[in-house]
């Protein structure tokens, strides 16, 4: 195990588990862990995107899926939807994560109540109402109706890059002048924010909250805040799913994904060591290899280290995928994570550090000692997954840095 196992790091890693076990009996924690294990397969997430034709709905759908508009399977942009039914788009790597491109309410003959019924509103986790200029009465009525139905919605004002550019031109600001450009950007955003606020107030919203975004640069403007706000307003489990599925835009998204995966790891390690134990020949150690493999594959996908995600990122930044792959040091592609692979890593980790790990883990959470063959199964599995995660995080950071190196297409 190439990660230094110290009492301090393990204590930190297992704090959430320890606290869960202090609050509830072991069986209850295990039952919850079982329920949440394989989260990405068992949990669904459905987001509805609505707004007038041309507002930027389909572009936003693609952005959330980490896709370019011209990619195979991307939502078509720049075309007016003629169909009146919601279009379903699944996340390229997480099929249970769905984004629905809804017909704009203004383009239907329905009022807000009828519209919500037509689009089958109860299945969505939340709504995003997009406008590229001002919000309309239809938008505000829709929001009111969504609120009445106890669902959440977020107003998003798209295309702020165009506004900034227009303002810059009108003031004849030189793009090279970074200070002036910064002021120009801030001024434009303030104007839009105020305009949206007044606009929605006039339509009856008491304290409107609007997020300003550009599809062309999601790491800028209010997109990170939008993501943060949406996550905060989900229950804990859904929040983790959202964090796992959304694209990596900044180092901060990697950090958040890491925290979500840490929470999943102890649960999966617990489940893996408690069901249908198959003793492994090389130690009195048992764990469910399949669960361990699934968790590892999920880690790869969550950090965008699988083939599909890397190809999409390469396309997005206009670089050969090989260039991005060249910085990945530790993480194998999910296809390579077989039972044999897991067994092999397990064997190696047993030699390297399991004994220390068992002592540390059991010392910290004594109840584990009495349950899993003296804690060895849990300790080994947990440390193995945690080590895999740490490495995936390092690789993801390197890929992000590589992708951000100059030679951007846009
Ligand atoms: N500059 C800029 N253009 C955008 C943005 N979002 C969408 N667009 C463009 O606006 C047009 C309409 O977008 P689309 O997503 O098809 O809108 P929809 O009709 O609401 O689905 C397309 O040409 C997009 O490329 C944005 O944030 N900035
Ligand atoms: Mg569209």
Description:
The chain has 410 residues and is α/β, with parallel strands linked by helices. The protein folds into 2 domains: 187 residues, no CATH class; 201 residues, 3-Layer(aba) Sandwich (Rossmann fold), CATH 3.40.50. 55% of the residues lie in helices and 9% in strands. It is built from 18 helices and 8 strands. Strands 2-3-1-4-5-6 form a 6-stranded mixed beta sheet, sandwiched between helices. A two-stranded antiparallel sheet has the order 7-8. A hairpin with a 4-residue loop joins strand 7 and strand 8. Helix 12 packs antiparallel against helix 18. The two termini are 42 Å apart. The model has no long low-confidence stretch (mean pLDDT 87). Bound molecules: guanosine-5'-diphosphate and magnesium ion (MG). The site of guanosine-5'-diphosphate has 17 residues, from helix 5 and helix 8.
